[in-house]
Specification:
Elements lengths: L1 H13 L3 H23 L2 H18 L9 H21 L27 H10 L2 H12 L4 H8 L3 H28 L1
Helix pairs in contact: 1-2, 2-3, 2-4, 3-4, 5-8, 6-8, 7-8
């Protein structure tokens, strides 16, 4: 039933029906905004990127064939617009692929079993460098694999894995520092 409802709204949007576009926007707004916010770490920029993504989606709606879930199709557009926005802001992905050439031997992952709050995790993630936060968010929160992340960010699969590993290690260190800071207060 829900799929038919979405299909009907999408068909109405393809015909230029503004009410259907508003309804589709209402259905997907919050989730897509959260995706953009996790990438950009800035509410105003996330809002802008999300708005641009919806505009692009409505313009490209004819290319949506229904062979994939509409939400997944839209999420990819939102992610791409958010990354474009981030590139404009900081030019942060200019040479990510060079990271794979500078790999140092990594020590095996150590267990990190501390009593950490959700707020502490959010703070630590928000403090990560943009490239770390994006790869970590795409992998852990959005469920993309490294091949998909590599395609989205236009980097190699190896670079995605390296950035993810480094992001996890930095996140662990930042969480430990936050934990120590909270305990010393």
């Amino acid at each position: 039933m829900e799929d038919r409802f979405h299909d009907n709204i999408i068909e109405q949007c393809k015909k230029g029906n503004r009410k259907a576009q508003t309804e589709l926007y209402r259905i997907y707004y919050r989730g897509m905004y959260n995706v953009s916010l996790r990438i950009l770490n800035n509410a105003a920029e996330a809002e802008d990127a999300m708005q641009e993504a919806f505009i692009a989606a409505f313009r490209q709606l004819e290319s949506f064939r229904g062979d994939v879930n509409f939400g997944g199709w839209l999420k990819k557009i939102v992610i791409n617009r958010s990354i474009d926005q981030l590139r404009k802001r900081r030019n942060f992905i200019s040479d990510l692929s060079k990271l794979s050439e500078k790999i140092e031997d990594q020590q095996p992952e150590q267990r990190f079993e501390e009593d950490i709050s959700a707020d502490m995790i959010k703070k630590a993630i928000n403090k990560l460098p943009d490239n770390y936060r994006i790869v970590l968010s795409l992998f852990l929160l959005e469920g993309y694999d490294h091949d998909e992340i590599a395609e989205i960010l236009k980097i190699s699969n190896g670079s995605s894995r390296i950035i993810y590993h480094r992001a996890k290690e930095k996140l662990k260190m930042d969480l430990l520092a936050l934990k120590l800071e909270v305990n010393n207060v």
